[in-house]
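[stage:ingest] chain + small molecule (iron/sulfur cluster)
[stage:ingest] validated
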Amino acid sequence: MDSTVDVGEQAQKAREKIARLKEELDAVILAHNYQRPEVQDLADFTGDSLELARKCVGTKAEVIVFCGVRFMAETAAILNPTSTVLLSHPNAGCPLADMISVDSLGQWKRMYPEAVVVAYVNTTAAIKAESDICCTSANAVEVVNAIANEEILFIPDQNLGHYVSTRTSKKVILYPGYCSVHADVTAEEVRLAKGRYPQARVLVHPECRAEVIDLADAALSTSQMLRYARQCNDRTFLIGTEEGLLHPLRRQNLEKEFFLLSDKLLCPDMKKTTLAILSETMEARENVVTVPEEIRVRAKRAIDRMLEIA
Ligand code: 13P
Ligand code: SF4
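[stage:predict] done
[stage:export] tokens:
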């Protein structure tokens, strides 16, 4: 049998099954910009963390199927307690989010009692509940600059926190977490790529190291990169974020070229969701993500403060 046809047929069957289950469950499917192309293509909405969080506020759907990683599905459950939230794959986590525990945050808060705690959304619900305000990569600078306090404890991504510190007069204390997908990109790789494509615009995610950001034209969230590429007249771009973003970049800009800055830019957790796994999750109505009410209410306060600012 022709295996390509077989794979194609299987994918088509999975798509049809997902469409049927979507009706049966009264579900909305959200997918992060890093998801596999075939998952992004069947989602009702794709976006960065901020856009997807906003989509969860007040959705009427009975079920939110979140194709992404656990902290994103938790954010959906925090913002919309009336919908049932299913995480597309049971073990899709974010190693960055797991780098800070409630105990270690407690120790840091005791070390810096005057600081306002700004939590990147890439954190667990329990960490958000212990924080003053959340931010995403799309609004971190805006959020920090909107805070009246002069001292900020930024958790858990030191690279995003450092980037923010270069755009504010406030004192930003950095917790030492990082995303290895982005932090592994080196300045040398950027220099080599720029040597190969000297005319290219370089767009990187602010989870990259400072020396990588210094060599880029802009540090942007994933959806901000999509907007930048659409609006920019240049035709060649070097992209410093997870490879899933190449799919919408290329689809939205057929006449432009996009290259990854490094072949390390692949997040294994974001790639766990396949069409087959997604349809299994929906069929069994499993991987329901819930947040204890006492934590949910406090975490929501930190997210709502962010949404009011940005
Ligand atoms: P964005 O919010 O920019 O989409 O980023 C999320 C993320 O996990 C980055 O690694
Ligand atoms: Fe987490 Fe990094 Fe993967 Fe984003 S790319 S989900 S920060 S591990």
